[in-house]
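Person: Please work through this fold.
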Amino acid sequence: MEIPISGFMHHSDETDPMHSHYLYITSWDGKPVHVHEFKGVTSFDVGHNHRYTGTTEPASSGVQHTHNYFTFTSVDDKHRHQIRGKTGPAIPLPNGGHYHEFNGVTTVDGTTPHRHRYSGRTSQ
């Protein structure tokens, strides 16, 4: 079975000796893909918290789906953490849009090694 997709490739700026590209898909089987914004504040641990913001990876519109996400937190107490995961499924809204819930824990970082919890909802 063949599924038509469209998109574009972008050469990575990484200095990795292996040559790599990023593929950005803009439509899947004739349907546009979409993204969601996400942001929030982590739990308060070891005397501080962090803010974060980002954009999910694209997913198909019009079908049940999830989105992968990745970002870094703000630098607080002289360090930052990575946030990475997969949203829950789409939650429909009365206006026809939808959002996704997400949650997890950050990477372990800091002078006193620790992690933070986070959770929230994406934009529509």
In short: The mean pLDDT is 88. The radius of gyration is 17 Å. DSSP finds no helices and twelve strands in the chain.
